[in-house]
Amino acid sequence: MFDEVGMEALIYKRNKITAYLEFILQEISKEVNGCVEIMTSSYQEERGCQLSVWLHGEGDSLFDYLMKNGVITDWREPNVIRLAPVPVYYSFDYMYNFGQLIKKVL
What we know:
The protein contains five helices and four strands, in the order ααβαβαββα. By secondary structure, it is an alpha+beta fold. It has one domain (about 1-105): Alpha-Beta Complex (Aspartate Aminotransferase, domain 1).
């Protein structure tokens, strides 16, 4: 699959989809008084397709909610969820729907 699509295309989509997820999380944070803070560098070269998100005032209940709703994330104590919008598996629609799911909880 990598040979068919090519690394350049995957890197391009990785950059775009991660930036889109970052935008979604920033907008949600504005709506919910800053309880979502992206800890990962905003420089694409330093983060790849992973965002670590600090959840102020939230905890494992959000992680559990996401997992029960089919969102695979990684939980790190004390209040960090790591998200990885891998370009091979995820779409921009999926990122949008993820944002809607988060907003329901927060």
